[in-house]
């Protein structure tokens, strides 16, 4: 027989140098209470070990100014022992079943009817032995997203548009993107099953990155990193240098604006001469 159910998590809050670490609660198997956890970060992760009965997770970040909010959930590859529902008007709607949790790269997104408070309900699957099961997932809350279209379109921001950025979008991208990198395309691979393409980038200059997506190869000394985009964007390998920008979702880099570097230089220098650049960018 397994021991008490347990919950642990590592919430990650944007803008915090050191994310808070917490380990939550445990309860005895005979208890019938539904435990409740409140998370106030716009992105994070939760791990429910030895799932039994039910767990209610309330996401309450400071998103009062959001017009449209989308919640995206990515189960861990070893997600077992529970299904995830979202509460809407007193009803439970299935978001991730236990069977879907085992699918690699599976991301489920849905529109939040109340941006200030989203309640998830985790229902444990009936089973005798829960000792080897863990229901863990990552979540992100995205602002100003359309509730229509495939899940990956909801998860991606500018990166889902599949069109060249205009000058203003490009100038904003270098200020607000999670990563900004000058480099060339080493290879492009396509994953039709998951509707994604991966661009392998050889980086000459890493201006900014949120996490260590781009890392230095010990043997060659070259900086490299993978960037994802939608398959429908039909990305192809091209020569020359580009400025790659974009955002990270669930630890993966998603492509945003990616002009040729010489085109970016012309646009940025012209904006700077007019005093129209929204932020300073290190050119050298």
TrEMBL record:
Keywords: Disulfide bond, Secreted, Signal. Belongs to the meteorin family. Gene3D superfamilies: 2.40.50.120. It comes from the Eukaryota. GO terms for molecular function: hormone activity. It comes from Strix occidentalis caurina. One of its GO terms (cellular component) is extracellular space. This is Meteorin-like protein. It is found in: Secreted. Its main location: secreted.
């Amino acid at each position: 027989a397994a021991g008490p159910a347990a919950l642990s998590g590592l919430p990650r809050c944007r803008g915090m140098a050191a994310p808070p670490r917490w380990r939550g609660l445990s309860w005895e198997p005979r208890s019938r209470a539904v435990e409740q956890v409140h998370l106030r970060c716009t992105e994070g992760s939760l791990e429910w070990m030895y799932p039994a009965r039910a767990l209610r997770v309330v996401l309450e970040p400071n998103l009062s100014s959001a017009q449209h909010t989308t919640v995206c959930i990515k189960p861990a590859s070893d997600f077992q022992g529970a299904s995830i529902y979202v509460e809407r008007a007193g009803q439970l709607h299935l978001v991730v079943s236990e069977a879907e949790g085992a699918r690699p790269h599976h991301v489920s997104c849905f529109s939040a009817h109340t941006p200030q408070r989203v309640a998830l309900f985790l229902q444990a699957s009936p089973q005798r032995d829960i000792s080897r099961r863990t229901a863990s997932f990552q979540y992100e809350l995205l602002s100003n997203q359309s509730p229509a279209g495939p899940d990956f379109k909801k998860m991606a921001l500018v990166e889902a548009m599949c069109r060249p950025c205009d000058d203003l979008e490009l100038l904003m991208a270098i200020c607000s993107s999670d990563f900004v990198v000058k480099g060339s395309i080493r290879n492009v691979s396509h994953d039709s099953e998951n509707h994604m393409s991966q661009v392998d980038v050889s980086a000459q200059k890493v201006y900014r990155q949120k996490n260590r997506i781009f890392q230095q190869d010990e043997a060659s000394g070259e900086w490299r990193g993978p960037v994802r985009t939608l398959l429908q964007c039909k990305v192809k390998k091209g020569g020359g240098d580009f400025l790659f920008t974009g955002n990270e979702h669930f630890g993966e880099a998603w492509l945003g604006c990616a002009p040729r570097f010489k085109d970016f230089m012309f646009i940025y220098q012209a904006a700077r001469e007019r005093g129209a650049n929204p932020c300073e960018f290190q050119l050298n």
